[in-house]
Specification:
44% of the residues lie in helices and 9% in strands. With 483 residues, the chain is mainly alpha-helical. The chain is elongated and about 105 Å long. The termini are far apart. The structure holds one RNA strand of 77 nucleotides.
RNA sequence: GCCCCGUUCGUCUAGAGGCCCAGGACACCGCCCUCUCAAGGCGGAGAUCAUCGGUUCGAAUCCGAUACGGGGUACCA
């Protein structure tokens, strides 16, 4: 690295509004912000944007914090941890917005408006009918004295941004240059009738106050970025860099939305996904390492992440790929770690039991919720015979009987102390003598021990349930043959 | 309607003028390994690089138009 090439760490932020749970789309945006901060040795801030009282959803703030915590996206400043720019909740910062709003009025970058919603609606309907863009017609800008008098008399009013003439452009970190003709930009409401700021004002004031260096947000914000840039300019502030990340689409190709059944990110925990796998999968939506590696721990992502490797097209979260990735992450866990992850899924077990189960389960599951099914015959007893064909195909009853007899004898003599290879050899000999393939013949043992022709390795299973239980199950199967 | 963003195998993507009659991953199929099922290894199938037209000796890569998809167009964020 050359001298002068050192860039200071980025200050990024995730600014959710507490209107509901987080879904994969919003979490992916949070993740990119977090990764960008961590990758550059900067800071990641969390800010609650609760300026819309109408849409406030009680409890969702805690849900959001828990989601981020579960995924390991820790914040350096924000709710609960505080920081030099406290508070990190917009409803507690209204004085600040009011102050800057007054400044904007003074310098002529904003004006008060008393138009009623009904008039605005009528105005837009007319514009639309005429094939023109829908923008505020600045009626109140032209009648300032009247407006002032109306407000004096107690009329409700909003503050509008006065968009200057010209062009507004910026170099988007993901999309390159983007330009808007200011004539296309509406005179955005900055302060609502209830005194709260809109996102547009609050976001600019806070990002500046909190010294955010890079605004990484979803692409739906592209059309309002010029408004924000105009605000920065009017206030005399240097704007941050902008990066608009692509949206995440559902498997139906539509944008994820709560309305269309996008699931709360915490539901993935309930479904048996590991946070590291989810983070890995979300990082791969739009971002790629540039190498052929794709399975990454969170630390590996931090070491590799860079915003300029983000692809601008929307991406679909593929459940099958997530499952496969989750399986890979499960297999990457140390046995003790997996045993611990399994606790909620196998509540009837001890830690020691789970550790013994891990070698049997780890290659066989992509999601933790598969553990109960895989371990059921070992923990809950043999399932009822049901539909299973016994003896299985390609195995005659006499061979099955001989195999089971041999197995019972072996188990009772303490044969389970022997290594697998030895057991396979000794029981396999019984089958070979009768011309039955081991693979076919051993299904008899699987059905006897697990109640199904396939499952976790049968000798390991027998050791887990113990010699006594194993012998009992083998005998029960032997008796079934006689009936 | 108006504005903006996007478009490579079913899905996620690599690709920044010749290395690409396009590479990887998931899913799918086959083989190997093997006490079953998996896991793992190897191989296969799968993309006229949205379309059309330019630029160029040469284009997935540059330019333009069109189509399609997405987003915005609120006193929501």
């Amino acid at each position: 690295m050359e001298i002068g090439d050192r860039r200071p760490g980025w200050r990024t932020r995730f600014a959710p509004s507490p209107t509901g749970a987080l879904h994969a789309g919003s979490v992916r945006t949070a993740l990119f912000n977090w990764l960008a901060a961590r990758a550059t040795g900067g800071s990641f801030l969390l800010r609650v944007e609760d300026t819309d009282q109408g849409r406030y959803h009680p409890g969702s703030e805690l849900q959001i914090l828990e989601s981020l915590r579960w995924l390991g996206l820790d914040w350096d400043e924000g709710p609960e941890v505080g920081g030099p720019h406290d508070p990190y909740v917009q409803s507690l910062r209204t004085d600040l917005y009011r102050l800057e709003a007054d400044r904007l009025v003074e310098i002529g970058a904003a004006y008060w408006c008393t138009c009623t919603p009904a008039r605005l609606e009528q105005m837009r309907a007319g514009q639309r009918a005429a094939g023109r863009p829908t923008r505020y017609d600045r009626r109140c800008l032209e009648r300032r004295e009247e407006v002032a008098a109306e407000i004096e008399a107690g009329a409700p009013a909003v503050l509008r941004q006065l968009i200057p003439r010209g062009r507004t452009e910026w170099e988007d970190l993901i999309r390159g240059p983007i330009a808007f003709d200011n004539a296309e930009i509406d005179d955005q409401v900055l302060l609502k009738g209830d005194g709260y700021p809109t996102y547009h004002l609050a976001n600019v004031v806070d990002d500046h106050a909190m010294e955010i260096s890079h605004v990484i947000r979803a692409e739906e914000w592209i059309p309002s970025t010029p408004k924000h840039l105009c605000l920065y300019r009017a206030l005399g502030w240097e704007p941050p860099r902008f990066a608009h990340v692509p949206v995440v689409l559902g498997e139906d190709g539509q944008k994820l939305s709560k309305r269309r059944g996008a699931r709360d990110i915490l539901q993935y925990r309930e479904l048996g996904y590991l946070p590291s796998a989810l983070v890995n999968a979300m990082a791969l939506l739009g971002w790629s390492s540039g190498t052929e590696e794709e399975v990454f721990t969170v630390e590996e992502l931090v070491a590799r992440f860079s915003l300029d490797r983000v692809h601008p097209a929307p991406a679909v979260l593929d459940g099958r790929r997530l499952d496969a990735l989750n399986g890979l992450h499960i297999r990457r866990l140390a046995p003790a770690e997996l045993a611990e992850e399994l606790e909620p899924w196998l509540p009837q077990t001890t830690g020691e039991q789970r550790l013994a189960l891990v070698p049997m389960l780890r290659e066989r599951m992509n999601r933790l919720d598969e553990a109960p099914r895989l371990a059921s015959a070992l923990l809950d007893g043999l399932p009822t015979a049901g539909e299973v064909q016994f003896p299985p195909k390609k195995v005659d009853a006499a061979t099955a009987a001989a195999l089971l007899d041999a197995a019972v004898g072996l188990v009772e003599e303490g044969g389970l102390e022997e290594p697998d290879d030895e057991l396979v050899r000794r029981l396999g000999a019984v089958l070979e003598d009768r011309g039955v393939k081991r693979g076919d013949g051993f299904r008899v043992l699987y059905i006897a021990i697990l109640g199904a022709p396939a499952g976790v390795p049968v000798f390991q299973a027998m050791r887990f349930i113990g010699a006594e239980a194993s012998a009992a199950r083998l005998r029960a199967a032997r008796e079934r043959l006689d009936r």
